[in-house]
Amino acid sequence: MSYTFDRIAPGSLVLVTGATGLIGSSAVITLLDRGYKVRAATRSVKKQRPFQQHLEDRYGKDVVEFVEFTDYLDPASWDAILKKALTRTFLAAAARAPQVKSVVFTSSRIAVYAPEFGKDLNLTVNNWADYFVDQARVVKENDPIAPVLVYAASKIRGERVAWDFIKEHMPHFAFNVVLPDCVAGPAANPTPGVYSTHTWLNDLFLGDANGYAVGFMKPAARFVDVRDTASIHVAALLEKQLDGQRLWAAAHKFTVDDILAAWREAFPGREILPDFKFEGQPDINIDDEQSTALLKAFKGEDWFSLKETVVANVQSVL
Ligand SMILES: *[C@@H]1O[C@H](CO)[C@@H](O)[C@H](O)[C@H]1NC(C)=O
Q1: Which residue ranges does the record assign to the NAD-dependent epimerase/dehydratase domain (predicted)?
Q2: pLDDT tens for residues 261-284?
Q3: Which partner for 51 in 111, 182, 189, 305 could form a disulfide, CB atoms 3.0-4.6 Å apart?
Q4: How confident is the model at residue 194 (pLDDT cuts 50, 70, 90)?
Q5: Dist. CA 126 → ligand 1 center (Å)
Q6: Which residues form ligand 1's pocket by a CB distance below 6 Å?
Q7: Pocket test residue of 122, 123, 286 for ligand 1, highest count of atoms within 8 A of CB
Q8: Is residue 29 helix, strand or coil?
Protein backbone atom coordinates (compact mmCIF):
# COMPACT_ATOMS: atom_id res chain seq x y z
CA MET A 1 0.00 0.00 0.00
CA SER A 2 1.47 3.34 -0.88
CA TYR A 3 0.58 6.28 1.26
CA THR A 4 0.51 9.86 -0.02
CA PHE A 5 -0.62 11.89 3.03
CA ASP A 6 -2.45 14.43 0.89
CA ARG A 7 -5.99 14.47 2.29
CA ILE A 8 -5.43 18.02 3.51
CA ALA A 9 -3.34 20.58 1.61
CA PRO A 10 -0.34 22.09 3.43
CA GLY A 11 -1.16 25.60 4.58
CA SER A 12 -4.59 24.43 5.80
CA LEU A 13 -5.66 25.00 9.38
CA VAL A 14 -5.67 22.10 11.88
CA LEU A 15 -7.34 22.34 15.28
CA VAL A 16 -5.49 20.53 18.08
CA THR A 17 -7.34 20.09 21.38
CA GLY A 18 -5.19 19.40 24.42
CA ALA A 19 -2.51 21.21 22.41
CA THR A 20 -0.27 21.91 25.40
CA GLY A 21 -0.22 18.34 26.76
CA LEU A 22 2.50 15.80 26.04
CA ILE A 23 0.95 14.28 22.89
CA GLY A 24 -0.89 17.41 21.78
CA SER A 25 2.18 19.66 21.89
CA SER A 26 4.19 17.13 19.89
CA ALA A 27 1.36 16.94 17.33
CA VAL A 28 1.45 20.74 17.04
CA ILE A 29 5.19 20.59 16.19
CA THR A 30 4.68 17.75 13.69
CA LEU A 31 1.94 19.72 11.91
CA LEU A 32 3.94 22.96 11.81
CA ASP A 33 6.98 21.07 10.49
CA ARG A 34 4.78 19.79 7.65
CA GLY A 35 3.59 23.27 6.73
CA TYR A 36 0.13 23.26 8.33
CA LYS A 37 -1.32 26.10 10.36
CA VAL A 38 -2.39 25.19 13.86
CA ARG A 39 -5.17 26.44 16.09
CA ALA A 40 -4.08 25.25 19.51
CA ALA A 41 -6.87 24.86 22.07
CA THR A 42 -5.89 25.12 25.70
CA ARG A 43 -7.46 25.83 29.10
CA SER A 44 -5.43 28.95 29.74
CA VAL A 45 -3.69 30.87 27.00
CA LYS A 46 -1.91 33.01 29.61
CA LYS A 47 -0.30 30.01 31.31
CA GLN A 48 0.84 28.69 27.96
CA ARG A 49 2.67 31.85 26.94
CA PRO A 50 6.14 30.17 27.03
CA PHE A 51 4.96 27.46 24.61
CA GLN A 52 3.33 30.03 22.35
CA GLN A 53 6.51 32.14 22.38
CA HIS A 54 8.61 29.06 21.58
CA LEU A 55 6.40 28.24 18.58
CA GLU A 56 6.27 31.84 17.34
CA ASP A 57 10.08 32.12 17.52
CA ARG A 58 10.51 28.90 15.58
CA TYR A 59 7.70 29.07 13.02
CA GLY A 60 6.53 32.67 12.92
CA LYS A 61 3.51 34.41 14.41
CA ASP A 62 1.12 33.79 11.53
CA VAL A 63 1.02 29.98 11.60
CA VAL A 64 -0.07 29.27 15.15
CA GLU A 65 -3.01 30.65 17.08
CA PHE A 66 -3.93 29.83 20.69
CA VAL A 67 -7.58 29.68 21.69
CA GLU A 68 -9.10 29.11 25.11
CA PHE A 69 -11.76 26.49 25.71
CA THR A 70 -13.42 28.16 28.66
CA ASP A 71 -15.57 25.40 30.08
CA TYR A 72 -13.21 22.72 28.84
CA LEU A 73 -11.52 20.34 31.23
CA ASP A 74 -11.83 21.43 34.77
CA PRO A 75 -9.66 18.56 36.10
CA ALA A 76 -11.92 18.14 39.12
CA SER A 77 -14.93 17.47 36.93
CA TRP A 78 -13.11 15.63 34.21
CA ASP A 79 -15.20 12.53 34.59
CA ALA A 80 -16.82 10.06 32.27
CA ILE A 81 -19.97 12.15 31.87
CA LEU A 82 -18.21 15.36 30.91
CA LYS A 83 -15.97 13.46 28.55
CA LYS A 84 -18.95 11.81 26.93
CA ALA A 85 -20.70 15.14 26.45
CA LEU A 86 -17.54 16.80 25.22
CA THR A 87 -16.84 14.12 22.61
CA ARG A 88 -20.40 14.27 21.27
CA THR A 89 -20.48 18.06 21.31
CA PHE A 90 -17.18 18.25 19.49
CA LEU A 91 -18.10 15.69 16.83
CA ALA A 92 -21.53 17.27 16.33
CA ALA A 93 -19.87 20.65 15.77
CA ALA A 94 -17.42 19.08 13.32
CA ALA A 95 -20.31 17.44 11.47
CA ARG A 96 -21.86 20.91 10.96
CA ALA A 97 -18.60 22.31 9.59
CA PRO A 98 -18.18 21.37 5.92
CA GLN A 99 -14.53 22.44 5.92
CA VAL A 100 -13.60 19.66 8.40
CA LYS A 101 -12.03 16.87 6.35
CA SER A 102 -10.56 14.58 8.96
CA VAL A 103 -10.76 13.99 12.71
CA VAL A 104 -8.30 11.95 14.78
CA PHE A 105 -9.31 10.93 18.29
CA THR A 106 -6.75 10.08 20.97
CA SER A 107 -7.89 7.05 22.89
CA SER A 108 -5.60 4.87 25.01
CA ARG A 109 -4.34 1.33 25.19
CA ILE A 110 -6.39 1.12 28.38
CA ALA A 111 -9.45 1.07 26.12
CA VAL A 112 -8.01 -2.20 24.76
CA TYR A 113 -6.27 -3.87 27.70
CA ALA A 114 -4.41 -3.44 30.96
CA PRO A 115 -1.29 -5.53 31.53
CA GLU A 116 -1.16 -7.97 34.46
CA PHE A 117 1.80 -9.87 35.83
CA GLY A 118 1.90 -13.43 34.53
CA LYS A 119 -0.73 -12.86 31.86
CA ASP A 120 0.49 -12.92 28.25
CA LEU A 121 -1.82 -11.35 25.70
CA ASN A 122 -2.23 -11.41 21.93
CA LEU A 123 -4.27 -8.35 21.10
CA THR A 124 -5.85 -6.78 18.05
CA VAL A 125 -7.34 -3.35 17.51
CA ASN A 126 -10.76 -5.03 17.73
CA ASN A 127 -10.30 -5.78 21.44
CA TRP A 128 -12.03 -3.64 24.05
CA ALA A 129 -11.47 -3.63 27.82
CA ASP A 130 -15.19 -3.13 28.51
CA TYR A 131 -14.92 -4.97 31.84
CA PHE A 132 -13.41 -1.78 33.30
CA VAL A 133 -16.71 0.02 32.81
CA ASP A 134 -18.52 -2.62 34.90
CA GLN A 135 -15.75 -2.63 37.52
CA ALA A 136 -15.75 1.18 37.77
CA ARG A 137 -19.49 1.11 38.39
CA VAL A 138 -19.19 -1.10 41.50
CA VAL A 139 -15.78 -0.12 42.94
CA LYS A 140 -15.80 1.50 46.41
CA GLU A 141 -14.77 5.14 46.35
CA ASN A 142 -11.87 4.64 48.81
CA ASP A 143 -10.47 1.60 47.00
CA PRO A 144 -6.94 2.54 45.79
CA ILE A 145 -7.74 1.05 42.38
CA ALA A 146 -10.82 3.31 41.98
CA PRO A 147 -9.08 6.21 40.15
CA VAL A 148 -7.52 3.79 37.65
CA LEU A 149 -10.86 2.11 36.97
CA VAL A 150 -12.64 5.43 36.58
CA TYR A 151 -9.92 6.68 34.22
CA ALA A 152 -10.09 3.46 32.19
CA ALA A 153 -13.88 3.56 32.08
CA SER A 154 -13.85 7.20 30.95
CA LYS A 155 -11.42 6.40 28.13
CA ILE A 156 -13.54 3.44 26.98
CA ARG A 157 -16.82 5.35 27.23
CA GLY A 158 -15.26 8.34 25.47
CA GLU A 159 -14.09 6.28 22.53
CA ARG A 160 -17.34 4.25 22.38
CA VAL A 161 -19.33 7.49 22.29
CA ALA A 162 -17.21 8.71 19.38
CA TRP A 163 -17.70 5.53 17.34
CA ASP A 164 -21.43 5.50 18.14
CA PHE A 165 -21.69 9.08 16.88
CA ILE A 166 -19.85 8.20 13.66
CA LYS A 167 -22.05 5.14 13.03
CA GLU A 168 -25.23 7.03 13.79
CA HIS A 169 -24.54 10.25 11.87
CA MET A 170 -22.10 9.14 9.17
CA PRO A 171 -20.48 12.60 9.02
CA HIS A 172 -18.67 13.85 5.94
CA PHE A 173 -15.20 13.75 7.56
CA ALA A 174 -12.81 10.82 7.95
CA PHE A 175 -12.52 9.53 11.51
CA ASN A 176 -9.66 7.51 12.99
CA VAL A 177 -8.55 6.65 16.51
CA VAL A 178 -5.02 6.34 17.94
CA LEU A 179 -4.29 3.95 20.80
CA PRO A 180 -1.12 5.14 22.55
CA ASP A 181 0.52 2.86 25.09
CA CYS A 182 3.06 4.20 27.60
CA VAL A 183 4.20 7.48 25.99
CA ALA A 184 7.64 8.95 26.78
CA GLY A 185 10.20 11.21 25.19
CA PRO A 186 10.91 14.93 24.97
CA ALA A 187 8.24 17.46 25.94
CA ALA A 188 7.60 19.89 23.08
CA ASN A 189 6.05 22.30 25.58
CA PRO A 190 8.78 24.02 27.65
CA THR A 191 6.41 24.10 30.66
CA PRO A 192 4.95 20.59 30.62
CA GLY A 193 2.20 19.64 33.07
CA VAL A 194 3.14 17.59 36.12
CA TYR A 195 0.75 14.74 35.39
CA SER A 196 2.39 13.14 32.41
CA THR A 197 4.58 10.12 31.87
CA HIS A 198 7.30 12.51 30.68
CA THR A 199 7.62 14.14 34.12
CA TRP A 200 7.16 10.82 35.94
CA LEU A 201 10.06 9.35 33.99
CA ASN A 202 12.25 12.32 34.91
CA ASP A 203 11.42 11.64 38.59
CA LEU A 204 12.49 8.03 38.13
CA PHE A 205 15.73 9.16 36.49
CA LEU A 206 16.39 11.48 39.44
CA GLY A 207 16.07 8.52 41.83
CA ASP A 208 12.42 8.45 42.93
CA ALA A 209 11.69 4.74 43.32
CA ASN A 210 8.16 5.29 44.66
CA GLY A 211 6.82 7.76 42.12
CA TYR A 212 4.03 7.41 39.60
CA ALA A 213 6.32 5.95 36.91
CA VAL A 214 6.95 2.71 38.77
CA GLY A 215 3.30 2.33 39.75
CA PHE A 216 2.33 2.87 36.14
CA MET A 217 4.86 0.33 34.85
CA LYS A 218 3.97 -2.41 37.32
CA PRO A 219 3.85 -4.29 35.07
CA ALA A 220 5.07 -2.47 32.01
CA ALA A 221 3.70 -3.48 28.64
CA ARG A 222 4.72 -1.49 25.58
CA PHE A 223 6.08 2.00 25.19
CA VAL A 224 6.15 4.54 22.38
CA ASP A 225 7.97 7.81 21.76
CA VAL A 226 5.74 10.86 21.91
CA ARG A 227 7.14 12.05 18.56
CA ASP A 228 6.05 8.78 16.94
CA THR A 229 2.68 9.03 18.66
CA ALA A 230 2.30 12.50 17.13
CA SER A 231 3.37 11.15 13.72
CA ILE A 232 0.69 8.44 13.84
CA HIS A 233 -1.93 11.09 14.64
CA VAL A 234 -0.88 13.37 11.80
CA ALA A 235 -0.42 10.47 9.36
CA ALA A 236 -3.97 9.26 10.15
CA LEU A 237 -5.25 12.80 9.69
CA LEU A 238 -3.63 13.18 6.27
CA GLU A 239 -3.79 9.73 4.68
CA LYS A 240 -6.84 9.35 2.41
CA GLN A 241 -6.83 5.55 2.63
CA LEU A 242 -7.49 5.66 6.36
CA ASP A 243 -11.04 6.02 7.61
CA GLY A 244 -12.72 4.22 10.48
CA GLN A 245 -9.49 2.69 11.78
CA ARG A 246 -8.03 2.14 15.22
CA LEU A 247 -4.26 2.55 15.05
CA TRP A 248 -1.69 1.48 17.62
CA ALA A 249 1.00 3.79 18.91
CA ALA A 250 2.77 1.12 20.95
CA ALA A 251 6.22 0.56 19.53
CA HIS A 252 8.18 -1.84 21.72
CA LYS A 253 7.84 -4.27 24.59
CA PHE A 254 9.71 -3.10 27.69
CA THR A 255 10.13 -3.32 31.45
CA VAL A 256 11.05 -0.58 33.89
CA ASP A 257 14.50 -2.23 34.24
CA ASP A 258 15.09 -1.78 30.47
CA ILE A 259 14.71 1.96 31.00
CA LEU A 260 17.22 1.96 33.88
CA ALA A 261 19.67 -0.08 31.75
CA ALA A 262 19.36 2.41 28.87
CA TRP A 263 20.15 5.30 31.21
CA ARG A 264 23.13 3.47 32.77
CA GLU A 265 24.52 2.94 29.28
CA ALA A 266 23.93 6.54 28.19
CA PHE A 267 25.11 8.19 31.42
CA PRO A 268 27.93 5.99 32.75
CA GLY A 269 29.04 8.38 35.51
CA ARG A 270 25.61 8.83 36.94
CA GLU A 271 23.90 6.99 39.76
CA ILE A 272 20.76 5.27 38.51
CA LEU A 273 18.28 3.32 40.67
CA PRO A 274 18.94 -0.43 41.01
CA ASP A 275 16.73 -2.82 39.01
CA PHE A 276 13.24 -3.52 40.35
CA LYS A 277 13.26 -7.15 39.08
CA PHE A 278 9.49 -7.54 38.95
CA GLU A 279 8.56 -11.14 38.25
CA GLY A 280 6.05 -12.41 35.72
CA GLN A 281 6.57 -9.71 33.08
CA PRO A 282 3.69 -10.29 30.62
CA ASP A 283 4.37 -10.75 26.92
CA ILE A 284 2.05 -8.36 25.08
CA ASN A 285 1.74 -8.89 21.32
CA ILE A 286 -0.28 -6.56 19.12
CA ASP A 287 -1.33 -6.28 15.46
CA ASP A 288 0.75 -3.18 14.79
CA GLU A 289 1.72 -3.92 11.15
CA GLN A 290 -0.48 -1.14 9.80
CA SER A 291 0.82 1.47 12.27
CA THR A 292 4.42 0.51 11.59
CA ALA A 293 3.95 0.76 7.81
CA LEU A 294 2.17 4.08 8.27
CA LEU A 295 4.91 5.48 10.50
CA LYS A 296 7.69 4.39 8.16
CA ALA A 297 5.95 5.95 5.18
CA PHE A 298 5.24 9.15 7.09
CA LYS A 299 8.61 9.83 8.67
CA GLY A 300 10.83 7.61 6.53
CA GLU A 301 12.16 5.79 9.59
CA ASP A 302 11.17 3.12 12.08
CA TRP A 303 9.88 3.77 15.63
CA PHE A 304 12.34 5.49 17.96
CA SER A 305 14.13 2.93 20.12
CA LEU A 306 13.56 2.78 23.86
CA LYS A 307 17.03 4.14 24.47
CA GLU A 308 16.54 7.11 22.13
CA THR A 309 13.23 7.83 23.80
CA VAL A 310 14.24 7.65 27.45
CA VAL A 311 17.50 9.53 26.86
CA ALA A 312 15.64 12.29 25.03
CA ASN A 313 13.05 12.32 27.85
CA VAL A 314 15.57 13.33 30.55
CA GLN A 315 17.44 16.05 28.63
CA SER A 316 15.51 18.71 30.55
CA VAL A 317 16.72 17.46 33.97
CA LEU A 318 20.37 16.62 33.28
C1 LIG B 1 0.00 -15.71 21.08
O2 LIG B 1 0.30 -16.12 19.76
C3 LIG B 1 1.45 -16.94 19.66
C4 LIG B 1 1.75 -17.15 18.19
O5 LIG B 1 0.61 -17.55 17.51
C6 LIG B 1 1.20 -18.23 20.43
O7 LIG B 1 2.33 -19.06 20.37
C8 LIG B 1 0.89 -17.89 21.88
O9 LIG B 1 0.54 -19.06 22.59
C10 LIG B 1 -0.27 -16.91 21.96
N11 LIG B 1 -0.40 -16.48 23.34
C12 LIG B 1 -1.58 -16.31 23.95
C13 LIG B 1 -1.54 -15.82 25.35
O14 LIG B 1 -2.63 -16.55 23.40
Answers
A1: 14-240
A2: 999 999 999 999 999 999 999 999
A3: 189
A4: confident
A5: 17
A6: 120-122, 285
A7: 122
A8: helix
